[in-house]
Amino acid sequence: MKKISWLCFIIICILPLTAYAETPSFYCAFDGNYKCTPDISPLEAKGAFKEGLYGKGLSVQDGAIVSYPANHIFNIQSGTISLWFKPEGTLVDEPHILFHHQGPSNNANLRFRILPGSQNGQCNRCYELAFFTGSGDVVVSKELQSILAPVRGWYHLVATWSNTNLQLYLNGQLISEKKQPIAIGSQDNKFFIGSDRGSVGTNGVIDEFALYTTALSSAQIKALFTQGMSGPIQPAIKQDIKVETSPPKTETIQTPVPPTVESKTEPVEIEQQPPLKQYIKQNQPLQKPTKESPASKNSSWIFALLIVIVIGTIVIIFIKKSKKYATSSEILYRVTEEMKREKQKWLAKGEEIHNKEQELVSKEDELHKREQKKTITEEELRKMEETFATKREEIRKKEQEWIAKGELLRKKEQEMAEKEMENQKKQEERHKKEQEKTEKEVENQKKYEEFKKKMNLSKNDCTIPAAAKKFKEAFGISKEQLPHLYQYVMEEVLQTDNIEFVQKEVTRALTKVDAEKVPEKFLTDMQEIDNMSGKEFEDFLEKMFTNLNYEVKRKKQTRDGGVDLILENESGITVVQAKHYKITNPVGIDAVQAVAANRRTHKAKKVMVVTTSSKFTIDAQKLASSEEVELVNRTGLKDLIRQAKLIKNG
Q: Average pLDDT over the chain, rounded to whole?
């Protein structure tokens, strides 16, 4: 038994040490600098630092570049890439590079990036977390429909590779795997973090970046994820760890209690390890892995060997001691029987003691009853006094309650009186408004009679175009007379109650009358509009819509949310986004999305995108059709200019 105890003690001591067997060959915290461990400086450093998972993190936008030498760090046969990624805003339709390894011929030996996914109707806005090797063919990838959408959170991304297997992990869970031989190529030159040679970056923040020269196991990757999500952790290693080129010395390690991590299938208990920053002590470099370094070997065979030794030892000891076990069982049986007999004796004695206690309790009860009879009268008097005192207190409380209720009734009467006064005032105001309304109706009827006299259309000319022409001749662009024109057409021309139809037809007729008076020479001056700046183009549109009988409001140029002009007339509110593009540059879907999203904010009945370009993209046209957005290209703009009578120098 002593041998078994010693073996168990040795195993318990060894297991915590093997938990920390794998250390990164390259690690960057990006806490305000590009210095990495082991003591490695970047070849190029043109990124930016933002708030990270711990301290600061790395942001590499398009055109920026951060690279490091790959010699003696990157293992082409097997390895692991581990990093934390926080997307910022919406990931656009282009790759987002997390890691890029460059070979001698400038071809990518290994790439780890996020790609835009398919748009097949089932997953309109997907993204793939992809792992590439060789000449660029996809080796292993996984579509993520809702994980990498615009969210505010960190995600743990891990990619592992070996001679026969490639794996992708997201937040500690294996999401994709492919078993096939790979040929990454020869190791040389450098690798990039967050971009591929500076042309394409990533829209997010990278932190806690690490490279391993072996493919980490699933349990090790789950442990890395658990430690990162738990926030700042107190170091599990008490003593300072010094990394030297000589064989490593034994360190005292305190193993924390492992937390329980819940997954989608079943709860898994993971042994907690310190975060990557705890492998660094006072900015001292880690040991560079070599072929003989423990960091480059998988320690799983050590566990298997220990288990075989322990099981064999237990079997041998069990065979040698089997006879003694039989004798021990007989002795145990006899001892158990003797203990049962002793227990019966003690139970009998306890029963006797219990009976005696019951007799004493009954005698005490008799004495207590006798004493109660002597004091019964005094007790009754005391209870009566307490009863009277209680009733007096209840009467006093009821009096207070009635006083409080009287106060509440008085306040309610005052409130009722105030409400009656308010109702009288409201009735008086309503009466005044009705009188004013009646007076306005009478006055409006008089104006309408005068309007009819001025129009004075004959029965042969009683049409909408004739009424519009006569209106322009008599009243010009007067907005006050437009309701009279609508009423005149409804009563005298069409004899209908459909006001919306009448408004549309009258507006079309008035526009046609205006167009007939505008000369065509202004169309040769569109070059002046092309030479305008964005602000000048918005000023021009403001003048144009004002001439078209709109009340125009300008939005601020910064953070306008896609709305440049707000138009208002009898038909309601219209929001407009102005796009001053070259004639050959098509307007994309972003402009339509931005202005359509503001329809509810401004309670707009109509949405427009006005541009100097000659066309819109197909995606923009489809979205405009589904969202009921009016697209005005160069040709439509000319028609609006003609209607507004804006000619050269006009």
A: 76
The pLDDT of residue 6: 56
Angle 234-237-242 from CA coordinates, rounded to 5°: 125
**Selection from 114-123, 151-160, 586-595 with the highest mean pLDDT:** 586-595
Asked if the structure places residue 64 within a domain, the reply is yes
Our measurement of the distance from residue 93's CA atom to the centroid of its chain's CA atoms, rounded to an integer in Å, reads: 18
What is the residue type of 237?
A: I
**Residue 44 is encoded by which pair of tokens?**
């190029």
Query: Is 524 in the same domain as 513?
Result: no
Name the pLDDT band for 267 (thresholds 50, 70, 90).
very low
| All residues at 6 or more sequence positions from 210 whose CB lies less than 8 Å from its CB, including other chains | 24, 26, 27, 28, 80, 81, 82, 83, 276
Distance CA 333, CA 340 (A): 11
Q: What is the pLDDT of residue 618?
A: 92
Q: Of 234, 251, 268, which residue sits at a domain end?
A: 234
Q: Does 136 share its domain with 55?
A: yes
Q: Tell whether 565 is covered by a domain.
A: yes
**Count of structural domains within the chain:** 4
Cα 422 to chain centroid distance, Å, stands at 50
Asked if residues 22 and 214 have their Cβ atoms less than 8 Å apart, the reply is yes
Nearest CA-CA partner of 42 in 76, 23, 70, 61: 70
Contact 69, 34 (CB under 8 A): no
Query: Is 155 in contact with 170 (CB distance < 8 Å)?
Result: yes
On whether residue 165 sits in a domain, the answer given is: yes
As a whole number of angstroms, the distance between CA 160 and CA 175 comes to 12
Report the alpha-carbon distance of residue 26 to residue 213 in Å, rounded.
9
Do both 482 and 545 map to the same domain?
no
603 vs 596: CA distance, rounded Å: 11
Host domain of residue 210: 21-234
Cα 56 from Cα 32, distance rounded (Å): 6
What does the alpha-carbon distance between residue 179 and residue 549 come to, in Å, rounded to a whole number?
69
Cα–Cα distance, 502 to 177 (Å, whole number): 66
My answer on whether 142 and 220 are in the same domain is: yes
642 falls in which pLDDT band (50, 70, 90)? confident
pLDDT value for 645: 77
Position 74 in a domain: yes
Q: Which residues, listed in sequence order, are joined to residue 37 by a DSSP beta bridge?
A: 27
Are 583 and 509 members of one domain? no
Q: What does the pLDDT read at residue 560?
A: 61
